[in-house]
Amino acid sequence: MNISQKRSKLLNQLQDNEIDFTSLCLEIYDYQKTYNPLYRAYLKALNRLDRRPTNVRQIPCLPIQFFKSHRVQSGEWKEEKVFLSSGTGGLQSQHLVRDVSFYRQHTQRIFEAQIGPLTDYCFLALLPGYLERTGSSLIEMVDHFIESSGHLDNGFYLREYEALANTLQRLNHAGEKVILFGVSFALLDFIKMHQPDMCHTTIIETGGMKSSQKEYTKQDILIQLQEKTNAQAIYSEYGMTELLSQAYATDALHFKLPRYMAIDVKEITDPFSSCATHKSGQINIIDLANIDTCSFIQTQDIGRVDSEGRLELMGRLDQSDIRGCNLLLEEKDMS
Questions:
Q1: Which fold has domain 20-76+260-330?
Q2: Global confidence as pTM
Q3: Which of 68, 119, 197, 263 is most exposed, with minimal Cβ within 10 Å?
Q4: What is the fold, at CATH topology level, of the domain defined by 101-254?
C-alpha cells in the first residue's frame, strides 16, 4: 500500500461514525513516524524510534514550538492555506493545511455533535484582532458556520459595538436562536458599553489575544458575562492554530472532547509520566484530524482532566522555551 492509499484509508476511518480511537491513533502514529521527517527525527533524538507504543499515552508528543521553526508535514504535498498564530512575543506558529474543505467540514461535525445543526442558528462574531490579521483558523471556522447557516443576519463585527447591540436586540426580541462567538476582551468591552437583550443568545467565548489589555482568568470572564448579560447560555471553545479539532465547554469551564481528540496530562518535570486524574500538569493533545501534519502535540498549557474525561484549563507554563525535551529544538538533525 502506497502513501496515498494509506492516507485515504486513515481519512475514511476518521470520518466513520464509529471510531476505534486507540487503533486509529496507533495507525496514524505509524504513518507519521514513517512519512513525517521532523517527527521521525524527534523520535530518533528521544531514542524512541524503534519502540512500538501499545497505548496512546506511550506516544511521544512533539513540542508545539516546532510549528514556529519547522515545516510540520507528513508526506509531500502543497498546502492550500497556512494557519498562523497571533505571533505575540516572537515567531508565529504555521500550520500547513492540505485541504481547507476538510477542515471546514470537520469543524462542522464537531459543533453539530456537541451543540446542534448550524442551520438552527444565526451566527454573529465579535473577533477583533483575529479579523485584523491573516491566517486565523478561528475566522476560517466561523466563516464556514456563517456560510452554512444561511441566516440573513449572520456576520462579523470588528468593533461596531452599537451595531452588534442593535442586531442582538432585534434578533432576541424576534425569538431567533443566536450564537455569538467572541474573543474575551472584546466581549468584556462590549458588555460594559451595551446591555442588549440576549435571552435567546448563546455566547461562545474563545479566549483572548494575549497581547490585548489585562489578562483575566477564565473564572473572571465567566462571572462578568453571567452578571452583566441575560444570555441563555455561556460556552467556551478551546482550539489552537496547531490543531484542526476543537473542544467546547457548555459550562464555560470543563471542555468535553470530541471523539477525534484525547488529552494526556503529563508531569511538568517529566514529559513522559502521565498525571493522575484531577492532578494538574502539562497538556498533551492527540488530534487525529492532524493526519497531514502531526497528531501528537505537547502544548505549553497547564490543565487537568476530571473523572468524566473533561479538560479544565489552568494557565500557561513559565519559561517553557528552555525546559526539558524542548532543548531538542536545537538538534541539527531536525533542521
A1: Luciferase; domain 3 (2.30.38)
A2: 0.91
A3: 119
A4: Rossmann fold (3.40.50)
